[in-house]
Structures are given as structure tokens and as C-alpha cells.
Amino acid sequence: GLYYGETLDGKPHGQGELRDYQNNKVIYSGEWANGKRHGQGKAAGPSAGSPVWFEGQWKQGLIERGTLFPDGDWCGVKKPDGTPTWPIKPIRWEEGQQLANRDLGGGWTLAEFLREEGLPKYFPDGAL
After folding, report:
1. Which domain of life is it from (predicted)?
2. I need a surface site. Which of 25, 48, 69, 95 has the fewest CB within 10 A?
């Protein structure tokens, strides 16, 4: 990705955005410390239709607490009336909790979706 924002010693530090190389889509916007996501921030998938999948607090590059799928949309595709194709209830989460293996519809569970998108690396051990 491409980083735009404040730096310290050549690393992201302070407010900044990480954008996808190919389509310039923002995939993380928020606070950074020593090159890692740290503080308040939002993360989205890199593809053009990907929704925001997390909004909340980060700690040393990992999710600490916040809301998964704050917009209630996980696939980014809308029906003709503008509603999400697979709306889900936003999921509150904080470090120390295990994510429920809830059904997202369309044959996907939450854990499967997170794994398919390469997102487990942002969760502390034991969250999935």
C-alpha cells in the first residue's frame, strides 16, 4: 500500500491513510504509532466495493476494541433499492473475547469471511 500522513523517523506516526496501490482506495484511515496502526481508526478491504469492516481502537497493529461491519454490510454490493445484499448486525468486539462463528448468509460464516479476506492477522491470538 501507499501511506499518506504524518511520520516519525521515516515510519507512519500520527494521523494517516494507507491506500491500495492499484485503485488508490483507502484501506486504513486513522492513528499510527511507530509504523503500526495504533489508536482510533477505520479499516476497509482493498477492492473497490469493499465496505469498512472495522471501526475502533487499535493497539500495536492489532484490533483492541470496536465494531466489526459498522455499516451492517459485508459484501459491498447493494440491491437496486440501495440496501446491502447481505446486511448483518454490527458486531461489538474487544480484546479477550472470542468472535462468535455467526452465519453471515450466502453460505459464509464470520470466521470464514475474515479468513478469506486475510484479516485474522489483525486480531490477537485466540480471537478467532
Report:
1. Eukaryota
2. 48
φ, ψ of residue 121 to 5 degrees: the values are: -60, -15
Nearest to 117 by CA among 76, 67, 60, 71: 76
Question: What is the residue-wise DSSP string for 36-57?
Answer: EEEEEEEEE-SSTTPPEEEEEE
Cβ-proximal residues to 104 (8 Å cutoff; 6+ apart), any chain:
74, 86, 88, 110, 113
The pLDDT, as a whole number, for residue 74 is: 61
Contact assessment for residue 14 and residue 5, using Cβ atoms and an 8 Å cutoff: yes
What digits encode the pLDDT tens for the residues 10-26?
999 999 999 999 889 99
Q: What is the DSSP letter of 21?
A: T
Q: Would you say residue 38 lies in a domain? A: yes
- The verdict on residue 127 lying in a domain is no
Q: pTM of the entire structure?
A: 0.79
Element (DSSP H or E) covering residue 7: strand 2-8
